[in-house]
């Protein structure tokens, strides 16, 4: 029984796109995802380590490419030899006494603008011989044979390189001479570098203390960069996988609050219309769209908004929506056929979606093709007897499962029972479902057993019909996985407590209801989505565009929080 | 038109004001409502009504417990409305005993009632006026307990009002302790909670933070109570820590940082507490930055100055936080006196101990010019703060020699000190002068020309010992390796009478510096003889006074050192030799149990018996007669004086004829 379950789960997870709600949370939380929730890493990956390619050869990497050390040129680091003056000069030249010995490494990826506020920390493990270390940012292609911020002579040759140097505490901005900026830093210090992608500024921290803004007017797409210059210099990096020394969350909160105020206080030009009216219109169309008929009428009376649709038509849609939301999909399909003939025939995909849901609802026990059970809200699932989660510990339920287990072996023909010969042919038509469907049948022949059995048979027949229907449709992954998920429900003695149990939740009806509602509206020559939804999805896509256009403020415009208000 | 309305006012108001005095409750009620409506929002109407003398009647209606509660409520609301008028309006309300009446009423009105709320609201308005009638609210425990109960349990409006009143009222140790006993800490803590996802409201938080700050200010007991007061699962410092975060309104963050600062300075939190180091300090440094409004920056600088006043590690941390130096330099440029004052004070605190920070301050662009301008600022608060800043920076030898000289800071400083300064300014200013007058300071010469000697001599006559100390200290510094004419001038100006007065000063430090001054005056041979030729009797008398008096050992040591200096003079030696009394004392001191007195006496003896100077043999003989030789030999044999043996041997070597 156990084995079979895992087998089924494996099939169930074969779906292409799994809903995140059902994904089991992994034990290791990705802190970076929490820090930068608006970054789409498929488009713009976050820097998570130093690049093994984008570095000067004097730089060595270790510890998952998070530790950087200076290994110098061909000879490698060594003790300072006892040499005559001229040779000493030569040795110094070779071992990090000149800028030519400087070497930098960039992170694997540039900082995505959608971070809003980006931050990383570097711990100085050892200052090495002279502590000539630089921490900062540089653009792709900037020469790596120097510390960040230091430009070639004449200054400004290497554009877009920014650094804070440990030996003198100066900040360097694409030039050979620094500006006094902050304190020096050395072994044991933790230096943080923050990029505010809203204001395009950069600040540093030392041991958790904000040192103030170092650079303004930063260009987009900069890479975190560190540079070392003398032997023995070693630094460790935290790109956010570990908690930071500095309280970055505090600044994030500030930026969120600021962005929110900016949105709230955005001046609305007068000529762009009467906002009150626009809002009323949005509310009214939203109510009409979703068929909240009486509310829409009341609202329209109060605000003087016209309703463009016939009241009877709204009521019809409302009726159908109610049926779907109550799980009575079969009735909804019938009503749709009657009220809008030809609609479902023209849209087989929609019909398939509805039928699929109907199947799920049959498992759920809320939909019966014949309404003699008085389906409204009364759970008449054939499976309900074999154990909701709380019945598990119950001795009777356990017995039932055991008995079932005895019977629902794959080699069913050998098992006892009168109905395995009926069960087997049924499942043949439904791939992904083994003979175990039989387990769903009631174990004991009680008074109502015959009617239950009938409904199970009805369900299986419906499933076969559904499968046949799916074969006619274009075989895309979406339909296939939908059907698989639905059928997978049958594999469990307790579908509600199964990995595919999410389908049974009433909230899942809403998407189906919306699809049907949209289709009806479209067939009537009306807009398939309400202006509110259009507005929200417009805003979402604007945020995506902002992210692509390197406008960091997109990180702090929290649409769902704004809507929730 | 104007006349017409005035006429209308009087005509229309007269009738209902008469009704106020009616015995018919209904008529009184109607009149009250009319009156209330007429004064709301109109300062002119408020003044007119007050001048018509209705306040006593309103107070009576308000306080009379037998009256209809609604009448009392309306009367209280009307008083509250009048209390929102002009300062003159409030003055006359206070004059007529409104504050006392309201306080009396609060003793009895039921908690949670509208009447209590209205009374508190009126009291709050009156207390917002300066000066607040704090005497109207006695430190009576029963009353205070009642008020803090309101602050904990009543409606939001009442709670805010009562806390505002208490915050103004709490101005001294007595009030602080009384409020703490009445449980005001927990009441304030309850107001500091910001529920998650709600927008923090400054109008609710600020009064509570102000109360907390007022209670903890320089009061270790209260601060300790506040430290241990919890609301829910958080202590007061933790609640404050939430409020200093960046997403809170600036004024809330500022006041919360102020509370943390006061807790720290009152000893409840150590200087390295994370809530100070990562909470209050970075918050204040952030509030000082250019993005904020002038008044926020000014207050933040002022609080930061207090936070960093003594602790060097906090000074170092502040100095690197968020470009504080340039933020402060920018605040100095602001127009308001408060801003300038805050920034100068903050610079003064930051530069108090650490030479590197002083260097950073001086290197901040154009700062010295601002300090000099600040000294000249007509606002005494600003000039005082500028002097504090200067005082702090004057501890740096390098600055004395370079920047201070470049900017001739002594000029405005001398001017300030000559221009009848306040006691505080005089104190800090003269301390700064002490530093400016150190020998290596090139400012010394020009300051003499400005009459520094006269001014300092006057300081030594002040009743405040700190000022006397600064005066004599500065004179001592001035006399160090000075030219003879300077020394003469000091002696002449100070006068022997004042010199003796200072030797009898109640403050030992003053006596020490006075003797130090004499030592500095009596250095180098020519100066000694020149001065002694004129002042020998006074100086000798001064030394004898000290040696005979009941002074601590270090004072007597100074006196012996003066003798030693005199003994170094060519002619002055004879003055000592002529005084048998002094010589006998000298011999006695060689055997004194206090080692430093032995050493000083040895120094005098060494100078007197030095061979190769005219009359050395005669002096040696005379001293040997008095037992000096024996005393020296004893000293040589003593195990306790092992560290003096070299000097004893040198002195004995001078006596070769006798040994």
Number of strands of chain A: 14
Question: What kind of assembly state do the chains in view correspond to?
Answer: heterodimer
Sheet of most strands of chain A: 7 strands, antiparallel
Q: What class would the helix/strand composition of chain A place it in?
A: alpha+beta
Q: Specify the helix fraction band of chain B.
A: over 70%
Q: What's the average pLDDT of chain A?
A: 75
Q: Which strand-content bin applies to the residues of chain B?
A: under 5%
The DSSP helix count of chain B reads 41
Largest interface: which pair?
A-B, 16 and 13 residues
Please estimate the helix content of chain A.
Answer: 25-40%
What do these coordinates show?
Chain A: Belongs to the RANBP9/10 family. The complex is a heterodimer of chains A (565) and B (659). Chain A is an alpha+beta fold and 565 residues long. Chain A has 17 helices and 14 strands. With 659 residues, chain B is an all-alpha fold. Helices cover 73% and strands 1% of the residues of chain B. In chain B, strand 1 and strand 2 form a beta hairpin. In chain B, helix 9 crosses helix 10 and helix 34 runs antiparallel to helix 35. The radius of gyration of chain B is 35 Å and the shape is elongated. The chains are: A alpha+beta (565), B mainly alpha (659). Chains A and B meet through strand 12 and helix 4 of A and helix 17 of B.
Descriptive terms for the model:
heterodimer; A: 565 residues; alpha+beta; seven-stranded antiparallel beta sheet; 14 strands; disordered N terminus; B: 659 residues; mainly alpha; two-stranded antiparallel sheet; 41 helices; 73% helix; 1% strand; elongated
List the helices and strands and how they pair.
The complex is a heterodimer of chains A (565) and B (659).
Chain A: H1 2-12, H2 31-35, E1 50-55, E2 59-62, E3 67-70, H3 85-94, E4 103-107, E5 117-127, E6 134-138, E7 161-165, E8 170-173, E9 179-180, E10 190-196, E11 201-206, E12 209-215, E13 223-228, E14 233-238, H4 248-264, H5 275-289, H6 293-303, H7 311-325, H8 329-339, H9 343-346, H10 348-364, H11 395-407, H12 420-428, H13 449-472, H14 477-488, H15 509-523, H16 531-548, H17 559-564
Chain B: H1 2-20, H2 25-39, H3 43-51, H4 55-63, H5 69-82, H6 87-95, H7 98-108, H8 114-127, H9 141-153, H10 156-169, H11 173-181, H12 184-191, H13 202-216, H14 220-228, E1 230-231, E2 234-235, H15 236-243, H16 250-265, H17 274-287, H18 294-307, H19 312-320, H20 324-332, H21 337-350, H22 355-363, H23 367-375, H24 380-393, H25 397-401, H26 403-406, H27 410-418, H28 423-436, H29 444-449, H30 452-459, H31 465-479, H32 484-503, H33 508-521, H34 525-548, H35 553-568, H36 572-577, H37 580-590, H38 595-609, H39 616-625, H40 628-637, H41 645-653
Antiparallel strand pairs in B: 1-2
């Amino acid at each position: 029984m156990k084995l079979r379950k895992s087998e089924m789960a494996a099939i169930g997870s074969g779906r292409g796109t799994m809903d995140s709600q059902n994904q089991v949370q992994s034990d290791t939380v990705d802190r970076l995802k929490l820090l930068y929730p608006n970054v789409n890493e498929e488009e713009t990956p976050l820097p998570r380590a130093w690049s093994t390619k984008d570095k000067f050869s004097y730089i060595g990497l270790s510890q998952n490419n998070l530790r950087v050390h200076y290994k110098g040129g061909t000879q490698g680091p060594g003790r300072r030899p006892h040499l005559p003056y001229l040779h000493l000069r030569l040795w110094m030249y070779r071992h990090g006494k000149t800028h030519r010995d400087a070497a930098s490494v960039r992170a694997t990826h540039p900082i995505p603008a959608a971070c809003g506020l980006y931050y990383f920390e570097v711990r100085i493990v050892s200052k090495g011989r002279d502590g000539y270390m630089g921490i900062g940012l540089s653009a792709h292609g900037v020469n790596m044979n120097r510390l960040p911020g230091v430009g070639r002579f004449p200054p400004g040759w290497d554009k877009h390189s920014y650094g804070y140097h440990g030996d003198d505490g100066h900040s360097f901005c694409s030039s050979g001479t620094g500006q006094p900026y902050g304190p020096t830093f050395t072994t044991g210090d933790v230096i943080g570098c923050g990029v505010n992608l809203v204001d395009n500024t950069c600040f540093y921290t030392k041991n958790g203390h904000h040192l103030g803004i170092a650079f303004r007017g930063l260009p987009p797409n900069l890479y975190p960069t560190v540079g070392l210059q003398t032997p023995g210099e070693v630094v460790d990096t935290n790109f956010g996988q570990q908690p930071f020394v500095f309280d970055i969350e505090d600044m994030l909160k500030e930026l969120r609050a600021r962005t929110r105020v900016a949105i709230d206080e955005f001046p609305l030009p007068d000529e762009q219309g009467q906002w009150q009216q626009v809002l009323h219109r949005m509310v009214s169309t939203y109510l009409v769209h979703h068929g909240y008929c009486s509310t829409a009428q009341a609202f329209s009376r109060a605000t003087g908004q016209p309703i463009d649709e016939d009241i009877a038509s709204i009521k019809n849609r409302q009726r159908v929506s109610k049926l779907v939301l109550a799980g009575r999909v079969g009735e909804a399909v019938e009503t749709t056929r009657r009220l809008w003939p030809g609609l479902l025939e023209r849209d087989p995909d929609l019909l398939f979606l509805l039928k699929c849901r109907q199947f799920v609802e049959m498992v759920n026990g809320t939909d019966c093709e014949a309404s003699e059970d008085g389906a409204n809200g009364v759970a008449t699932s054939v499976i309900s007897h074999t154990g909701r989660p709380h019945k598990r510990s119950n001795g009777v339920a356990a017995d039932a499962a055991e008995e079932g287990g005895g019977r629902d072996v794959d080699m069913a023909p050998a098992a006892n029972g009168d109905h395995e010969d009926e069960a087997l042919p049924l499942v043949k038509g439904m791939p992904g479902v083994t003979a175990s469907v039989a387990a769903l049948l009631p174990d004991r022949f009680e008074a109502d057993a015959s009617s239950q059995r009938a409904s199970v048979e009805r369900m299986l027949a419906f499933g076969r019909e559904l499968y046949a229907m799916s074969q006619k449709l274009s075989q895309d992954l979406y339909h296939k996985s939908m059907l698989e998920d639905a059928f997978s429900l049958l594999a469990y003695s307790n579908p509600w407590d199964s990995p595919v149990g999410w389908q049974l939740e009433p909230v899942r009806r809403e998407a189906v209801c919306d699809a049907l509602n949209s289709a009806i509206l479209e067939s009537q020559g009306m807009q398939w989505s309400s202006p509110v939804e259009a507005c929200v999805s417009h805003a979402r896509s604007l945020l995506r565009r902002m992210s692509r256009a390197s406008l960091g403020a997109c990180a702090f415009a929290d649409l769902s929080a704004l809507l929730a208000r | 038109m104007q006349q017409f309305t005035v006429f209308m006012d009087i005509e229309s108001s007269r009738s209902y004001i008469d009704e106020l005095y009616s015995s018919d409750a209904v008529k009184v009620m109607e009149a009250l409502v009319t009156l209330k409506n007429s004064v709301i929002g109109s300062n002119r109407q408020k003044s007119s009504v007050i001048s018509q003398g209705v306040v006593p009647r309103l107070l009576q209606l308000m306080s009379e417990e037998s009256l209809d509660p609604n009448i009392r409520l309306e009367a209280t609301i009307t008083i509250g409305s009048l209390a929102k008028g002009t300062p003159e309006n409030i003055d006359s309300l206070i004059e007529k005993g409104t504050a006392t009446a309201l306080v009396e009423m609060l003793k009895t009105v039921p908690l949670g009632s509208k009447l209590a709320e209205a009374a508190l609201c009126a009291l709050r308005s009156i207390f917002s006026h300066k000066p607040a009638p704090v005497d109207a609210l006695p430190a009576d425990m029963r009353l205070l307990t009642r008020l803090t109960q309101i602050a904990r349990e009543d409606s939001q409006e009442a709670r805010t009002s009562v806390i505002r009143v208490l915050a103004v009222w709490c101005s001294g140790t007595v009030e602080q302790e009384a409020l703490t006993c009445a449980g005001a800490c927990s009441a304030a803590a309850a107001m500091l909670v910001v529920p998650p996802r709600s927008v923090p409201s400054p109008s609710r938080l600020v009064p509570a933070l102000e109360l907390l700050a007022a209670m903890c200010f320089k009061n270790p007991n209260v601060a300790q109570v506040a430290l241990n007061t919890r609301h829910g699962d958080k202590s007061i410092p933790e609640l404050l820590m939430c409020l200093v975060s960046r997403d809170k309104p600036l004024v809330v963050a500022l006041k919360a940082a102020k509370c943390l600062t006061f807790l720290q300075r009152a000893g409840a939190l150590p200087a390295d507490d994370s809530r100070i180091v990562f909470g209050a300090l970075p918050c204040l440094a952030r509030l000082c930055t250019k993005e904020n409004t002038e008044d926020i920056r000014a207050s933040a600088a002022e609080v930061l100055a207090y936070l960093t006043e003594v602790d060097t590690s906090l000074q170092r941390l502040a100095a690197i936080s968020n470009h504080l130096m340039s933020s402060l330099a920018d605040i100095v440029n602001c127009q308001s006196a408060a801003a300038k004052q805050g920034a100068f004070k903050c610079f003064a605190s930051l530069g108090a101990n650490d030479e590197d920070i002083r260097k950073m301050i001086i290197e901040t662009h154009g700062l010295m010019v601002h300090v000099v301008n600040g000294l000249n600022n007509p606002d005494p608060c600003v000039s005082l703060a500028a002097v504090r800043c200067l005082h702090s920076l004057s501890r740096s030898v390098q600055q004395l020699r370079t920047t201070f000289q470049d900017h001739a800071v002594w000029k405005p400083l001398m001017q300030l000190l000559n221009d009848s300064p306040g006691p505080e300014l005089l104190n800090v200013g003269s301390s700064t002068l002490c530093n400016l007058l150190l020998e290596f300071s090139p400012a010394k010469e020009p300051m003499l020309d400005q009459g520094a000697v006269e001014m300092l001599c006057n300081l030594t006559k002040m009743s405040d010992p700190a000022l006397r100390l600064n005066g004599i200290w500065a004179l001592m510094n001035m006399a160090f390796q000075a030219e003879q004419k300077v020394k003469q001038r000091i002696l002449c100006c100070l006068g022997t009478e004042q010199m003796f007065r200072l030797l009898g000063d109640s403050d030992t430090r003053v006596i020490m510096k006075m003797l130090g001054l004499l030592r500095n005056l009596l250095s180098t041979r020519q100066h000694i003889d020149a001065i002694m030729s004129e002042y020998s009797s006074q100086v000798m008398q001064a030394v004898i006074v000290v040696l005979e008096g009941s002074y601590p050992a270090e004072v007597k040591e100074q006196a012996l050192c003066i003798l030693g200096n005199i003994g170094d003079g060519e002619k002055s030696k004879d003055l000592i030799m002529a005084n048998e009394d002094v010589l006998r004392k000298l011999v006695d001191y060689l055997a004194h149990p206090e080692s430093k007195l032995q050493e000083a006496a040895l120094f005098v003896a060494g100078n007197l018996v030095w061979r190769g100077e005219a009359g050395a043999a005669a002096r040696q003989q005379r001293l040997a007669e008095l037992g000096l030789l024996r005393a020296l030999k004893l000293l040589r044999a003593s195990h306790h004086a092992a560290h003096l043996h070299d000097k004893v041997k040198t002195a004995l070597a001078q006596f070769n004829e006798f040994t």
